[in-house]
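Translate sequence into structure tokens.
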Amino acid sequence: MFMQNLSLLAEVADNAYSAAGLLYIGIGIIMIAMSMSSLAEGLVCSSALKGMARNPEASKTLRSSMILGVSLCETVAIYGLVLAILLIFVFGPNQIVK
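Result follows.
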């Protein structure tokens, strides 16, 4: 059992650089999700502005719904940013290669 763990540890040490590469691929995927979040914010705002232009009486309701939608989109981006920072600085390649 102990020897199996040692061989597994040696195998992981050989693959440390590929693990760092996978880490950066994961960070890239997070950045893509963050960019999609910003596109969603733009769509929410443009749809709300179109609705306000068509129906000015409903602008108060549309504005509050827009603010709620934008805040939900922004939380996805903030969570992605926090996760990317954690992956870079806490679980970064310096921690993997050691």
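Note: DSSP finds four helices and no strands in the chain.
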